[in-house]
Amino acid sequence: MSITTTGLHHVTAIAGDPQRNADFYVRTLGLRLVKTTVNFDDPGTYHLYYGDESGKPGSLLTFFPRPDAPAGRHGTGQATTTSFSVPAESIGWWKDHLAQAGAITGRIVNREGEDIVSFRDPDGLQLALVAHPQGDPRDPWDNGHVPPEHAIRGLHSVTLSVTEEEATANMFADLGLRFTSQDSNRLRFSAGDGGPGAMVDVLVTPNTPRGLVSVGTVHHVAWRAPDEQTQLSWRGELVDRGVEVTSVLDRRYFRSIYFREPGGTLLEAATEQPGFAIDEPLLELGRALKLPPWLEPDREQIEHTLPKLDLPTENNPELV
């Protein structure tokens, strides 16, 4: 198969209150809200994108905030942990910083030669900060709140929980990922050259109940497709393999196709272009509600439906 993704594009999760979500990810984690828009399939719901300065693929964690939705349940058939990459000397700083912010953290552990501290966001989403021993060359976003020498560099990896490994492992091989290591019931697969932003761990837990996707859980995991032509080729190959794949969907900032891996997790292949500066300048990313052209006629109704959201000033420090 010719599908060869180079790594993660983004992870999308479900949040509760959008204001609490923005405050935590901008102020506590020091990420940038690079786009304030809506769920194109449900325009009464925000879609908030957090990442580095410009929202490059591989830096993004996004949310559908649904204040009235029930809490989800972590379990098999979903991505259960989203991990960010931080400098090796920063794990201790982050543990103290998160504790001061009121987040409950786990003890620092070492796995695969990487120091890891786990924690949860205000909605219970399972997160981790990971220090890769070879470092991470990606530039951090400097908003003046988290020192750049400690700041998040982007996504590190995601962990999928499954009841059995073979079919999921075969799917990742079809996506061009290679098996690189195993630690007990945890298998690691890497895309491209591997390293932070290009890894997925598969946690095999046969006796764990099925998860429920709602507030505090991951909705889907997106992998990078270089361009639309390649994405179409990938779609054709997946269909030939008997995988149920959506048509190509216009997400304004990228094009998407969706399908499930055999363990149940919803996956996406998303193009790297056109990016988030297509409808607002870099300095102003995230400041205003942006709608795709086909939803602009409904702007007044959409704005009336959405809950109030005050963007933290740290998101656009040069404009304060």
Automatic annotation (TrEMBL):
GO terms for molecular function: dioxygenase activity. This is Ring-cleaving dioxygenase. Keywords: Dioxygenase, Oxidoreductase. It comes from Amycolatopsis pithecellobii. Pfam families: Glyoxalase (PF00903). Residues 7-132, 154-272 form the VOC domain.
